[in-house]
Every structure is written in structure tokens, then in C-alpha cells.
Amino acid sequence: MSIWQRVLLGLILGALAGPLLGEHASFLRPVGDAFIALIKMLVVPLIFVSIVGGISSVGDVSRMSRMGRRTIGLYLVTTSIAIVIGLAAAAVLQPGAGVAIHETAGVPSDFAAPGIAEMLLRLIPENPFAAFSSGDTLQVIVFSILFGIALTAVGSAGTPVVRLVEALSAVIFRLTDMIITLAPIGVFALIAVTTAEYGISVLLPLGKLILAVYAACILHIVLSLGGLLVLLGRVDPMQFLRGILEAQIIAFSTTTAAGTLPVTMACARENLGVSQEVAGFVLPIGTTINMDGTAIYQAVAAVFLAQTYGIELAVMDYATIGATALLASVGTAAIPAGGLMALSIVLVSVGLPLEGIALIAGIDRVLDMMRTATNVTGDAAISVLVAVSEGELDRDVFSRRAA
Length: 403
Prior knowledge:
This protein has helices at 3-21, 29-58, 61-93, 116-121, 128-134, 137-153, 159-180, 183-197, 200-203, 207-233, 237-254, 257-270, 276-289, 292-308, 315-331, 338-349, 357-361, 364-389, 395-400. The chain is mainly α.
């Protein structure tokens, strides 16, 4: 049995065990938390060695610039498509219709979102070591890119550092493989605790909201990402989904795209045939700025709250939600509690009450599972497309996954 099949089995068994164990499932929580801590442990060093190694191996600054433009451009395109799907799903399914409003609390009505200048300044690490120690992934990415460019610019003088980074990469990738072997146990524990905590009585009142988010995410993965893989990559989307399944399950279980990054990179390299250089450059950036699932969630949640409060949205309001969701999902990546911040910005843009966030806070974990899996899938899809455009996709490896 392959590792991804064992992980899938762990997810299924966890889903079955949770309701049976009930409150006793809490003893599994430390096991799940330990697994999340192990994979998060790898994120910062993996980002650094991957980006620096990728840039130094590319060597040509013009090629790196071209890859960067393609990567960011594709991320913006897929996120925009995701928002449109989210808005359409919410308009058709009407998840807020008939939902009773109770007293809400938790989000102050005078909430103020940070300005563009403040968000841009957050990208620059005043102290790189502080960024590394705090796990601020976006600042780590910015420093790693600048460090990689400088390392390439110094030429032969930087050769010892390049060799050190290559050695560190080998060690980190090996450590990743070791931790991935524990994934079936970690996934079992996380899913068991989640299913025990969220009983059917909690999910039913907001079932249409959950359905709308999940349906929109699945449509985006199958139609949008699958269509781009066929049209631009000339690859089989089903083979892609088989190759990325392990990362999807880990993302679904842990609800952390950054924590799933080591697994996503391993799947991209070993299952999809994406070169180490492209995976190391594209995926860390995608983890922080590519938020397809989050954008869908913001769009659906905003329309849901409007319907719940009986507020009619005009065509311009839908356009405002879409534009703000795109900017918010990208711009708040480095801000603590970024998901809440991003949704708050979207609600403020069309005058929806911020107190409504408390309505969906109780099931946020359930929604977060699907949106995180969608984010990770989008990251991997773009890495394949960029690899194809750069001639860095090993199609033999990609095809072998389906054999």
C-alpha cells in the first residue's frame, strides 16, 4: 500500500472513529497537534533552501524574472476565476436564506483594516532572524529571494554557499520524507477529533453554507484548474489529481497550507515531475499569495451574510466583493489572523455588518479544511503550468503516477 493510500485510509478511519469516540476523542488531540508541529517545523528552512537553491540554479536573472511574472500572473487569474465561481454558487444556492440571526459578538464594529502601504511594509523583514524565528513566511520569502539574487550576482565567490544550500536541501528533503511516513497516524488523529467535535446538530443549521463553499471549491478544482492544465499544460488533470492527492489530504486534515508545503513540494517533484528549481520557486510563493479556496470562502461568506441580514446586493456590490476578495486574499497573507482580517475587509467594502462573522465562526474549521485543500491544489497546478512553460516538467514521471 502506497503512502497516499495509507493517508487516505487514516482519513476514512478517523472520520468513522470520531463519532464513536465522542468526547473521548480528545486524547488523540496531542497526536494530531504533534504531527502539525512536525510539518510546520520544516516550513521556514524548506522555503529558504528551496528558493535560494532554485534561484542559484536558474542563474539567469531574466529567466527568473520571467518565471516570476508567469507565476504571479497565473495565481491572479486562478484566484479571480475562483471568486466568480464562489459568487455564482452563493447566488444560486442561497445559503443565507432562512438562517435565524442570534446575538453575535466578537468582532468590533469599529474594526479598521490596514492600508496598502502598511501591508507592503510588512513584506520587508527588519530583522531576517526575527522573521525566521517567528515563522513569518512572506518575509522569509522576500529575504530568500533577495539572498538568492545576491548569491547569483557574486558569481564564483558564492560557490561554497551554493554547495551548502544544496547539502541542506538534501537533508531537509530527507527529513520531509521521514515525517510524511507519520502522516496516516496524524491524519487519523486530526480527523477523529474534528468529527467528534462537530456533530451533525452543529452542521445542519449552516449546511447550505458548507455545501456552497465545498461545491464551489470542487468546481474550481475540476473545471478551472483542470481546464487550465489541459489547455495550457497539455496534461491529464486526473493524473494531476492522483499525484497531488496526498498533499490535499494533509491540507484538508491540518488546515494549514504553509504546514503542508513540505508535502506539496514532495508531491510536485516526485509524483508530478516538476523540477526542483520550479517547485522551489513557485510553491513557497503560492503558499502565501495564492488563495483560491480562501477567495471562494470570502465571496460565499459575504453573500451568505447579506442574505442572512436581508441586505440586497446590487451588481456593483458583487463586483466590489470580487475585487476586494482578490486583493484581501493576497494582501493579508503576512498579517496575524489573516483569514479573519481578509473577510473583514471584504465585508467592510460593501457595508455588511462585521458582527456577522460570529455566525460562521463555529463551523470555520469545517470550511477551512476545504479551502486549504483548494489553496494547495491551486499551488500545485500552477507549478505544473510554469514547469511546462519552462520545459522543466518530466512527463515520464507525471505519466508514471497513473501506471
